[in-house]
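hey so i finaly got around to running the thing on DUF3837 domain-containing protein from Candidatus Eisenbergiella pullistercoris. pasting the sequence first so u can double check i didnt mess up the copy paste, my clipboard has been acting weird all day
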Amino acid sequence: MVPVLARMAVIIKADHDTNVITGNYEMAYICGLMSRFVGIPAQAFETPEAMRENTLAALSGYRPADGREKNLLRMLDAYQPEAAYDDQVRELYRMGLEEDRPWQK
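ok and heres what it spat out for the C-alpha cells, dont ask me to read them lol
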C-alpha cells in the first residue's frame, strides 16, 4: 500500500511548482521515473543519498519535456534524503523505471 501512496503523491505533486518531496519513497520513485525518461538503466545503490546524487548527475544538462518534469527535477534537487533505505525504497525506484509519464494515462 505504501508504494502506491508514494507513487500517487508524486504524480499529484508534479502538477504544482510549490510541492516538496516528503520522504525517501517519493524520492526513489522520482529517481526511477527520471532515469526512465532519459534512458538510464537500472542501478543498484548503497544509500538513498547515492541514488539521488547519481540520478542528478546523470540528468545534468537534461531539458525537461514539460512543467511536470521540471517540478520533479526541482523537488529532487532540493530534497535531503533520510538514512532509511529499505525494500520499499528500492521497489519504488523500480516502479519509476517501469513507467512512462504516468500522468498521461
